[in-house]
TrEMBL record:
<dbReference type="Pfam" id="PF23679">
    <property type="entry name" value="UPA-FIIND"/>
</dbReference>
<feature type="domain" description="FIIND">
    <location>
        <begin position="568"/>
        <end position="840"/>
    </location>
</feature>
<dbReference type="GO" id="GO:0005829">
    <property type="term" value="C:cytosol"/>
</dbReference>
<feature type="region of interest" description="Disordered">
    <location>
        <begin position="165"/>
        <end position="188"/>
    </location>
</feature>
<keyword id="KW-0863">Zinc-finger</keyword>
<dbReference type="GO" id="GO:0016605">
    <property type="term" value="C:PML body"/>
</dbReference>
<feature type="compositionally biased region" description="Polar residues">
    <location>
        <begin position="442"/>
        <end position="456"/>
    </location>
</feature>
<feature type="domain" description="CW-type">
    <location>
        <begin position="345"/>
        <end position="397"/>
    </location>
</feature>
<feature type="compositionally biased region" description="Basic and acidic residues">
    <location>
        <begin position="410"/>
        <end position="420"/>
    </location>
</feature>
<keyword id="KW-0479">Metal-binding</keyword>
<dbReference type="Pfam" id="PF07496">
    <property type="entry name" value="zf-CW"/>
</dbReference>
<feature type="region of interest" description="Disordered">
    <location>
        <begin position="387"/>
        <end position="474"/>
    </location>
</feature>
<dbReference type="InterPro" id="IPR011124">
    <property type="entry name" value="Znf_CW"/>
</dbReference>
<protein>
    <recommendedName>
        <fullName>CW-type domain-containing protein</fullName>
    </recommendedName>
</protein>
<dbReference type="Pfam" id="PF13553">
    <property type="entry name" value="FIIND"/>
</dbReference>
<dbReference type="InterPro" id="IPR041006">
    <property type="entry name" value="Morc_S5"/>
</dbReference>
<dbReference type="Pfam" id="PF17942">
    <property type="entry name" value="Morc6_S5"/>
</dbReference>
Length: 840
């Protein structure tokens, strides 16, 4: 239940209707969570039936999305009964046009009377302060078969205030990306199996109160749970830079990696970056928190689209995480015997959320967040500045956290290098970086204010030509003295001074040259008066002051510039690295094209790309469905192959799929790699219209998977016929199978029977019923649901009993509503084509 704005009839209709998605039509312009397929696929993933109550002002709507109901009424389309109740004065009633829907809801849901339905609206009214909100009830929850018994997919018993994914820890696959510890020893982050833990980190900055099974979820401000926090920035190409917060996990050093958010919502948790996957301990315990609004999440929001931008981000942020790790180790390197990740147990800061206004407040150091009362409110704050709910929230980095930390471990060499470069460059440096010198008194005040550091040389020349020879001479002398005074300054400073001096002497302007000549002449002839001396003194002092300022500025610049420059260079380097990587991939592909040997198995449609010639043995084995439970939302989408050959000889494997891709469906395919009781989900390199291509590292079991979707989508299928001659009777076996089941496998189970070749291909929808057309003969059963059987045992879907020798018959396949899905055709049962397949 939520206490949101509630929905009226139209909105609920949009939410529950299939094939309606605002999100797809104007992708990217609709806020997250607004009537996509999320509710439909999400709720139907959890259970067979769902009912939605929503209250908005005086209208109350109830809608039923129920698979049980659709099965009962034998619906051909998805029907979603929705009833709207309206409150007028004291009575709440539904208009007559909803009568039929109301009857259906009362017959097929958990609620048998109108009063029972209205009670649910009262719950919304009672619990939501604004008296509007939405309440969803899902029942007939999904069950999974483990061994012989069926049990609920989720564990409601283990913790009365939580919903957990069943704990078959040894079966739970450890994701490929997180493989570092030797098998078995690694613990799974709590958020992977506990809904409570997941909800606590679901939002980057939690603003919502979540109550799970009667108990408030203690939300976490993830960036504030870390220790030794530093911030870095990453600048995606053409976008504004974003902040990455790095720090140590203070709860468990075993769970580390990137926490990736999109518009405040968690997409990926503990996603390890390159350096954290290596077989050393680089990056252990380090968490990076990043909000990537510029990336596109996949429709189930568990991943990002694998775009160039995504890969670039991972590469660059990975490099920054490594920097952070090195920096922290550099700084804390003092006689440390214990690994650093073992020493960080408390977060840098303590933040707490007000249970009333939901604002986050920073607690003073030394307060233990664990000692705080369960319910905390702003008025309990010891900081008077933020002691009321009406006070603004404190900025996250208000306390002088460096917005960008200094990578000191690199600074030293950076500095050295820069000094060297400065020395080499100085003689030829244009005078653009030369500051203006003080103007003599006869120059207008507007000009005196111009102390900009980047005046163009031309403008400068013009101004300088206004100086009289005396002042210029004084300025020169003062400058020379100053250089002497600062003769102990660093080389770089001296080099900069030299620049200024060069600029003073060399203006490249005729007027100045003439002035200089005149100056020298007058110097020889005219003795300096005491008034002049006074002037010189003033000028001298001015110059000293200015040069001091100059020196300060230079120092500042030296401090600032290298860091920025190096950062931008680093970004550039990362970009280059990405391009380099891509080029290398292209090159590898070209190489692969040239060197590879492709084997296409005609029987199974498998394709092996091999290093050279070699022997490959493969068989179809049985899927272990209980193993797949741990993988989340995957179901088999093809046979599971056991593949054997000499290690390293197979480079790429193409597995045939039978999905029909259209613009409307987005079927996510992956490949399961099973070894030693573990399942690893491999992301395909490429999905073609017929195959899924993966890179092969170790051989064993491979099988195609697809994301579980509640959407009736046809796949390409095949109708296989086997003719059996018995003593008196004849039988025709009909198999309805997914298109990527090898015929050979089925033939193996029909030894002695004749395989009748025909145009077998058709499109069938898993879960829908089909019946063969074979009149006047009898077929049993009359109709059957098409399921995705991937072997290795294949039982006939239908049998047609033929009492006598029949030469041919007309055979077709109809769907539930009698439409032809496999056109009736003449099938010859006897004749010249007859031969028997025998397989060893
Ligand atoms: Zn408050």
């Amino acid at each position: 239940m939520d206490n949101g704005k509630g929905m009226d009839y139209d909105k609920m209709h949009k939410m529950l209707s299939f094939g309606f998605s605002d999100k797809q039509t104007i992708r990217g312009h609709v806020p997250v969570g607004l009537y996509g397929n999320g509710f439909k696929s999400g709720s139907m993933r959890l259970g067979k039936d769902a009912i939605v109550f929503s209250k908005k002002a005086n209208t109350m709507c109830v809608g039923l999305l129920s698979q049980t109901y659709l099965e009962k009424i034998k619906a051909q389309d998805v029907i979603v009964p929705i009833v709207m109740f309206t409150k007028t004065r004291q009575t709440i009633s539904a208009a007559p046009e909803y009568a039929e829907c109301l009857r259906d809801i009362l017959t097929h849901s958990l609620f048998q009377t109108e009063e029972e339905l209205l009670t649910e609206f009262n719950v919304i009214k009672r619990l939501c302060s604004n008296s509007s909100g939405t309440r969803i009830i899902i029942w007939n929850l999904r069950r999974t078969s483990s061994g012989s018994s069926e049990e609920l997919e989720f564990d409601f018993m283990k913790d009365p205030n939580d919903i957990q994914i069943r704990d078959d820890a040894n079966k739970r696959q450890t994701r490929k990306a997180n493989k570092r510890q030797p098998g078995g020893g690694m613990s799974v982050p709590e958020s992977e199996y506990s809904l409570r833990a997941y909800c606590s980190i679901l939002y980057l900055k939690p603003r919502m109160q979540i109550i799970l099974r009667g108990l408030k979820v203690e939300t976490q401000f993830v960036t504030k749970t870390l220790a030794k926090v530093y911030r870095d920035t990453y600048k995606p190409v053409g976008k504004e830079g974003i902040t990455i917060t790095f720090g140590y996990n203070t709860k468990s050093k075993e769970h580390y990696g990137l926490m990736m958010y999109h518009k405040n919502r968690l997409i990926k948790a503990y996603e390890r970056v390159a350096c954290q996957r290596k077989a050393n301990n680089t990056g252990v315990g380090v968490i990076g928190v990043i909000e990537c609004n510029y990336l596109t999440p996949t429709h189930n929001k568990q991943d990002f689209d694998n775009s160039d931008e995504y890969r670039k981000t991972m590469l660059s942020v990975g490099a920054k995480l490594e920097d952070y790790w090195k920096e922290v180790h550099y700084r804390h390197n003092t006689n440390c015997t214990e690994p650093f990740e073992d020493t960080v147990k408390t977060p840098d800061q303590n933040w707490v959320q007000c249970d009333d206004c939901m604002k986050w407040r920073k607690l003073p150091d030394g307060i233990d967040a664990k000692q705080l009362p369960k319910k905390w409110f702003c008025h309990m704050n010891s900081d008077p500045q933020f002691r009321s709910c009406s006070d603004e929230e404190e900025a996250e980095d208000s306390d002088g956290d460096q917005p960008k930390y200094q990578k000191t471990y690199k600074q030293q060499e950076r500095h050295q290098k820069l000094l060297q470069e400065n020395r080499q460059q100085s003689p030829s440096t244009p005078c653009s970086s030369v500051p203006m010198t003080p103007r003599p008194s006869d120059v207008t005040s507007a000009d005196t204010q111009d102390t900009s550091l980047s005046t163009t040389p031309k403008r400068k020349a013009l101004k300088w030509s206004l100086e009289n020879p005396e002042t210029k001479k004084a300025r020169k002398k003062a400058f020379d003295d100053q250089v002497l005074l600062f003769s102990h300054a660093s080389d770089a400073t001296k080099a900069e001074y030299k620049d200024i001096k060069t600029a003073l002497n060399d203006d490249g302007d005729d007027v100045i040259d003439k002035c200089m000549m005149k100056e020298e002449q007058s110097n020889k002839i005219t003795p300096t008066s005491s008034k002049d001396q006074q002037n010189y003194k003033v000028l001298y002092l001015q110059s000293v002051e200015e040069i001091k300022q100059l020196q300060h500025k230079l120092k500042q610049q030296l401090k600032k510039e290298p860091k920025e420059e190096v950062d931008s260079l680093k970004d550039e380097k990362n970009n280059l690295l990405t391009s380099y990587e891509r080029l290398q991939k292209d090159l590898e592909e070209v190489k692969r094209e040239n060197e590879k040997v492709m084997f296409h198995c005609k029987m199974t449609n498998l394709v092996f790309e091999m290093k050279g010639k070699g022997e490959v043995l493969y068989t179809v084995v049985s899927w272990d469905n209980s193993q797949l439970q741990g993988t989340g939302q995957f179901q088999p989408a093809g046979p599971l192959y056991s593949i054997k050959c000499s290690e390293g000889s197979v480079l790429y494997l193409h597995l045939p799929h039978c999905e029909i891709h259209t613009d409307k469906n987005q079927i996510e395919l992956a490949v399961a790699h099973c070894s030693e009781g573990n399942i690893e989900i491999l992301q395909p390199l490429k999905v073609t219209s017929t195959h899924v291509i993966i890179e092969v590292q170790h051989l064993s079991l491979f099988g195609l998977l697809k994301k579980w979707i509640f959407q009736e989508t046809p796949i390409s299928a095949q109708v296989l016929l086997f003719y059996q001659k018995m003593q008196i009777r004849r039988k025709l076996h009909i198999h309805l199978l997914p298109g990527n089941v090898p015929i050979e496998e089925v033939q193996n189970q029909h030894k002695g029977n004749t395989y009748i070749q025909c145009s077998a291909i058709c499109q069938l929808t898993p879960g829908k019923k089909y019946r063969p057309l074979c009149e006047p003969y009898v077929c049993q059963p009359k109709a059957e649901t098409f399921g995705c059987n991937y072997g290795p045992n294949y039982h006939p879907t239908f049998e047609v009993i033929l009492n006598t020798e029949v030469e041919d018959l007309t055979l077709g396949l109809l769907d539930e509503i009698g439409q032809e899905v496999w056109e009736p055709r003449q099938v010859f049962l006897t004749g010249s084509q007859e031969f028997i397949f025998v397989f060893p």
